[in-house]
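worker-3 :: picked Rho termination factor N-terminal domain-containing protein
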Amino acid sequence: MPQGDKDKYTDKQKRKAEHIEKSYERKGVSGKEAEARAWATVNKQSGGGNRSGGSGQKKSSQAKSADRSDSARQAAATRKSGSRSASLADQTKEQLMKKARAQNIRGRSTMRKQELISALRRSN
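worker-3 :: tokens ->
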């Protein structure tokens, strides 16, 4: 499929892109730029042209069941501890980085997650 070919898009996606394009043109955007923005919007919303068979991987029913029970177990542990805030180990590196920034911990930008946890514990 050559670049710019819209054959893989559904009729609904094509109508949506056309509508978005007209909206941009009413706002004074050039025709070529309006078309590019419209298709970019459609791609962002729907992940591009729909292909037969669907896209992405499907989880097995066993994997879904395992995920649900893990989630339930984690929720029960949170309720049991009486604390809604996650422990440091349960937080993402980005969340830990925000806390380290708020506490002005030096060298935080080069720290790994475990190092951030240790530094945050030492600072309290």
